[in-house]
Amino acid sequence: MGGIGSTWLGIHRNWRRLRDGVFSRLARGGFASFGSRSHLSLPVTLHRADLIAVGAGVYFGPGCWLQALPQHGDGERENVPRIEVGDRCSFAGYDVLSAARRIVVEPGVLFARNVYVSDHVHAFADPSRPIRDQGLAKVAEVVIEEGAWLGQNVVVCPGVRIGKGAVVGAGSVVNQDVPARTLAVGAPARVVKELARS
Description:
The chain has one helix at 2-27; strands spanning 33-34, 39-40, 45-47, 52-54, 59-60, 65-68, 83-85, 90-91, 96-99, 103-105, 110-111, 116-118, 121-122, 136-137, 142-144, 149-150, 155-156, 161-162, 167-168, 173-174, 182-185, 190-194.
């Protein structure tokens, strides 16, 4: 029985690879740019892909959600990418990038599953209105520098810069900058270790 099961698993794996490859090629034209050998695994949610720039050799695992939110009255940035993903980044799956202003993920960044990155929060100051009707607040650029690694279930808040080669431990909430080549953990995340430098 193992042989038959292995055969069917192989067929399933090859089918998914083919399906996702075809989808990636078809979706390419809808992005601001989409580099060679980059791959979108289904299911994926895309909002305003025309405001998303993806480098070469990028992998998006299943369940990722890429959302660009153009703001009214922001004419100077109307057609400028809100999300920029550099070459050779890897998103394990179910990761979210949600940008109203700008999220930059530099080359070689590694995302574990369920990482949430947003450059904005919902406004909630007016008690007379539902939060969903209050718009956005604290809109500020997020930058994740080259070669960083974000562990599972990490949340990255608006205005944060995660330095080159930094590591953010699983389940952390990053609400302030993380220096290059450090390990940050916790909610809120704090630097607990300096990492080796070349």
